[in-house]
Amino acid sequence: MLDIKSCINHPNAKAIAACNRCSSALCGMCSNFIDEIVLCESCSEAFESEKFVAAQTEKLERPNSTMVVEDQAAEKFNSPATRKNPSKAIQWAVVIVSGCIISAQLFFYSNPPLVEQQPSAIAKELQLSSLVKCMLLFREIGLILQDGRMPESDMLCADSDAANVLVNEGGNIRFYHPNPQHYGYEEISVGNTDAEPRIVLAEQ
Known about the structure:
Shape: elongated
Number of strands: 8
Number of helices: 4
Distance between the termini: 41 Å
Radius of gyration: 28 Å
């Protein structure tokens, strides 16, 4: 059971799992399901790097059964005492470089305050947080409609530039977000027959 009830990246979103490596609480958007385990974004990237290193190491260690010595004279001339093994050097170089990369990733991901976030990443994070809050508000509107009541007029998402659009077709009541394009969607709506918000992606 999680000790933290909210996602470590999205405080307003309920955590559904914990990272199997760093135990961070994760919501559905932040959970990466890999090989029957759950990882956060940071640990997921580190895990993929480790898999890549292991795969490359296995390739280097696998004997090359198709290798044929064509020049027997050259083979005899290069005795085992004087012949060098370049594959071993390459193998160790790959392992060392990959180990340094993984160590650096783990350090920076474990110390996020030391890493300066890019403005685009910050803007994306704020937009995602705003969308989650808007979805929760629309779900609340849907529950009110299912209860046979009408929501207050001030129940608007923070980004809304106008009131929610109300459509009543033969008793089927539906509220639409006035500007879903702010999030990249063509429609964000909820009705009295389904409390869960419906979202439709905008055509690219």
